[in-house]
Write a structure and sequence with these properties.
Layout (H helix, E strand, L loop, with lengths): L20 H13 L6 H11 L16 H5 L2 H4 L16 H8 L4 H11 L12 H9 L8 H7 L6 H14 L5 E3 H8 L8 H14 L7 H15 L4 E4 L2 E4 L1 H4 L2 H12 L12 H12 L17 H7 L24 E2 L17 H5 L9 H16 L3 E4 L6 E5 L2 E8 L6 H23 L4 E6 L9 H8 L3 E5 L4 E3 L4 H8 L2
Parallel strand pairs: 7-8, 8-9
Antiparallel strand pairs: 1-3, 2-3, 4-5, 5-6, 6-7, 9-10
Helix pairs in contact: 1-2, 9-11, 9-14, 10-11, 10-12
Length: about 500
Amino acid sequence: MTLPYPGYSWSFNHHMGRVNSREVFALLDSAYRFRRYSNYRALVNQALVAEGIFTPNVRADSGQIDAWRDYQQILPDLGLIYSTRYIKQPQLTPIGLMFIDGTIGYSELFSTQVLAYQYPNGHKTAISPAVKGELSQAGISIPANRMELDINSGILIKPGVLILQILLELYRQGYSPTLDTRECLLALVPTIRNSDWQEAYTRLLQLRQTGNTSEADQRRLRDVQEWFQFLGQGDFAVKQGNRISLAPSVLAEIEQLQTILDFHADPVTFWIPQSSVELENALAWYGFFGSPSIESQWITPDELRSQEYLSENYPDHELLDEIDSPSVIVEISEINLRPFSPSIPEIVDVDVTVDVESLIQGRLRLRDKTRQHQEIVARLATKLTELSYNVADDPNSVDLLAEKDGFETIFEVKTINRRNFQPRIRLGVGQLSEYRYRRQLQTQVRPNSILVLGNTLQLPTWTPDYFSSDINIGLLCSRADSFLALTAGAVELEVQNAS
């Protein structure tokens, strides 16, 4: 087996087998609830134990309950939060917010992220002492980090995509679509690029024909085992012992699977670091991996979304989809603006002995917008304020109205996923048309209007002209840390360029 470099492996978090939908939800939800408290760890730990998610295992070294320390490391691995190594307070990524909002299910979350996880990336950057030793023995100079090592070796691989492509090819050729960890290690791991999958397939067939009994390195084998655990949490595969197979449900959706594998295998869909500064690359990685575009998301076919599936994939059954209209009919035609104030508190200290039960019971149950929606609105308002706009909102209609130099722009924010983006875009267009008309009745001046989408997506080629010229509505897409203009209006370009 010839590896891209000595010591190369698909290194991954070794806790994948210990998580489930309820635990991941509780970790993320608690992190979000207490993200603005300087002592958030103590509050998260109390909440996790109080809600019965984890037992109060007391650490021998500190004498304190610290479930957060034991389990949180999987969250940045999956792109659900920024690593607290780089951002001290918990900061959820868009896909992390989507999960706790119920706009993406647990298996869809894992399916989407297992497709997008790549080497090189901005999270797995450390070079272990064992790998450094192997590099030194081979006379290879040791670079500053694993990312440089991967790039210098020409690695551009998404292991999940490679494994699924091989399983799919086995099925097409009449073989059982299954792999064991040793076969994966010896035949697939040496692959440098996803476009080389046929070479990996040939190695696999040769391995099976010759019955190669060469020893498999245990460290690398454990990494493959974790990758199998990762795949087994999604919709694509079933893990049994040290084997993984294509799920029966996916065999009925082969063309859909192949389409999304082709999408992710394309080099243009990979993240490429743009900086020599570790912090900048890390933040860019979490922003990229944590903001999957509509095209990169996997959706479970509707016929497979049984009540059991919904219960397992959406742990918080009380959460509802985002409400787009007030619960009571507003009888007046005027838009009643107020100065905008984000509902996001400042970082504060809280007594760690406080009874968190009251905080748990009051957790955003009465909100009429999703958490992702609130975060986008707050971030957009901040950006507009920095650009010298006066910002207001109306809880019964307008998400944001920004005014500068006598000109007004109405913004409507829509969180979307691959399942609902078309009807929600149409809904947003209708709302903006109404708000624009009602505002013109008040001021006698027609305001600009911009639709802000919660994910990036590729729209048909006619779309920009339709929005710009026919309905005169601008389009912005929200990324983890910026905004992307899909139309060329002055305001949306100003927001994009200031991001």
